[in-house]
Amino acid sequence: MESRGTLLLKAEGMSKFYGPVHALEDVNFDLYRGEVHALMGENGAGKSTLSKLIAGIETPTAGKLEFDGKPVVIPTPQVALKLGIAMVTQEFNSIPHMTVAENIFLGHSEMYKKGIYFDKHRAEKETRELLKLFDMDESINPAAKLSTLSVAEQQIVEIVKAVSYNAQMIILDEPTASLSNMEAQRLFQVIRDLKKKQVGFILVTHRFNEIFEISDRITVLRDGKLVLPGAPMEEMTEQSLVRAMVGREMVNFYGEKVENTVQHDEILRVEHLCGRGGFLKDISFVARKGEITGFAGLVGAGRTELMRAVFGADSYDSGAVYLDGVSLKKGSPRTSIKYGLSMATEDRKSEGLLLDLSLIMNTCYAKTVQKKGWILPHKSEKADTLKMAEMFRTKIGNIHDKGSSLSGGNQQKIVLSKWLLTNPKVLIVDEPTRGIDIAAKADIYTILKNLAASGMCVIVVSSELPEILGICDRVMVMKDGEIVKHMEISEASEERIMAYASLGRAAEKIDSEETMKA
Amino acid sequence: MKDTALKSGARHSGLQMVLTNYRSEIGVFVALILYCAVISVLSPHFLTGRNMLNLFSQLSVVGLLAIGELFVLLTGGIDLSVGNTMGLSCMAGGMVMASTQNIAAGIIVALAIGLLCGVVNGYLVGYVGLPAFIVTLGMMGITRNADYLMCGGIGINNLPEGIKMLTKAKVLGINVYYIIIILLFILMGWILSNTKLGRNTYAIGSNKNAARLSGVNTKLATLLPYAISGLFAGIGAVILMSRFAAVDPNYGSGNEMNAIAACVVGGTSLAGGKGSMLGTFIGVVLMACISNGLDLLGVSPYWQGVTIGCVIIGVLLIETYSEKVRGKSKK
């Protein structure tokens, strides 16, 4: 740990009850100036609740807060901001059709001439100065609409906004959930710069590697209770961290390799696919039965766009997709599903689930839509729902509960259940474990492996390299709308994939030199 | 691990499940009972059989429109044209009926015109992708004025006498068409919860994108509710013709608002995906009871309008508030 600054925040006996539910029980937490204190735990462990209590988004049932040595009460986010506490959430509080400068300075009263007119020029100038602090003034234009920025850049704008309020302490809730490795690195650089300026960070995340990379201390919560209070990072290992989080040892997170005797016949063939106005360039690949094919690459490499085109969620310009020899109609998920191609999309809330409808409907409707006849098979639907819930170990209350009643991991299991019921030959899963807790992750890996073992062709798009390496049989690396490299898993490593993902075919040269050396 | 889902499923069953699943229906039903109790104390005429039949004739047309409107609202759309579509169907059917003196021909034309208007709405919304509000607002303007153009502003009153039998026929002192309307409510309610048509309607209202990616033909699934709405406007037109044996170009104007209000009061969300036929039926009855009760008390129609407006907003307030409370206790 770098030299510890003075104590910035001290929280004692923090509790939050929602009726009979104890979201947080008697938790102590502290943060020093210039440190990154990671907050971990499974979904529902109370990380978000604790951050929200500190940021004034929720008020505690019990507990005391001290900020900068003085006791404080934080009833609203505005009060928190005034004290110097800012929170950057997963859902940004920003306005997409306003400029970067407007987003940053919207709440600053001194930016308004005579208290009414927003001083655009001054705001843009100050924004540029703030961005310069992080060497971002070249890549982010203060006058650009926020919607034209990448997710990572938007995230950085949020942090800059916090800095503009002179925040002493910034809470980051899953800051890298939708960032590629390289973008995350950029974000970390910003964090490191601010650490030097004695800003303290609370980092809420699921990702192990970044905790080890950037945190100084770690606190782990389980079921609303403190299990590991502020331990220095040097004392932690991945194993001890997992043990603290789930309360049991996970022998092999990605599960054993499941052997299968399936003939690895080609089942999906994509030929010369071009689309998205020239972004997807002449893509051809095949995927085989009994295998998990991974698609790696940075965010924006075109993996999601490619898979959406293959499945038919979006149309494409030219090329062809063959499933088991049959040419699939483009832009029609309906025919794809009919011939046995299913896809669980990246954004399960906006594209996968019917949040305000029942679980039985969420689980069964893709299957039922394919069936002939107009009358719903209520009985078999109920049986299917219960069968899938058991198979996936989905924690559901009642099959008539709404989709929104489930946690992220269980929602993802419902989405996968829905697709499995359509009996696909090929299943595409885009970011299968984004934002879900560790136990559910392990469950999902097991399921995907078993599916492949039973002869299905599974395609996984993932930004988490350990995940690709842990479960896939082969990897395609994409960059700028092209497949730049195809590797067997035995010859893949995080370094090699990253090299191709960031450099494209140019990595070939380095790669061959490395292999020569080896 | 075997099987948490089953066990807790059983634990939740029975009364508790009925209460959670029919929360908004129960809410409106309680309001209805309370209102009826108050009015029957204030006016001895309210709970008489005669008044009940009268009440039913008041709600029948709006009820028919509300059935169709519910389908459209569930998709997250809105049909502002139902009232005037009914007016136009009435006019077209009436003109055919008056000139041919053939009742069946008139009825078929009325139903066909209603269906046609609905299909055009549905095509423009579902296949072309225009916003429902604008499309049906346009259709409302077209049908309202086409009405006057067709008849030159003068009504039709030489419909064959036989048409009256449709609404006059009685069994056990109850008009047959009341029973038919109830059966239509039951039938369409059954369709909503037991057929693919119904499920697709809910699915596209809840999340159109997810529905499309799951293989639903979202264009067709969007069109059909509008077609149903148009068809029910046609059925409403037949009832109107029969009841008065005459057609006035003013028929139907403004009825769409009553139909939408009845759906909303019955727990239907304008955002789509939420609502039920039972709730809509109770909503229709409640709205009719309110104006009927106020009539009996001699309240001026202007105050009735104010009251109904307040009821709609009040119901939404309660709904939003209870949703918030539930949301909090859930976390």
Describe what this molecule looks like in 3D.
- The complex is a heterodimer of chains A (518) and B (331).
- Chain A is an alpha/beta fold and 518 residues long.
- Chain A has three domains: 1-72 and 168-174 and 195-252, Rossmann fold (3-Layer(aba) Sandwich); 85-167, 3-Layer(aba) Sandwich (Rossmann fold), CATH 3.40.50; 288-315 and 330-517, Rossmann fold, CATH 3.40.50.
- Chain A contains 18 helices and 22 strands.
- Chain A has a six-stranded mixed sheet with strand order 6-9-10-3-11-12, sandwiched between helices.
- The mean pLDDT of chain A is 84.
- Chain B has a single domain, classed as ABC transporter involved in vitamin B12 uptake, BtuC, CATH 1.10.3470.
- In chain B, helix 9 (176-194) runs parallel beside helix 10 (196-213) and helix 13 runs antiparallel to helix 14.
- A two-stranded antiparallel ribbon of chain B has the order 1-2.
- Chain B has 331 residues and is an all-alpha fold.
- In chain B, a hairpin with a 2-residue loop joins strand 1 and strand 2 (174-175).
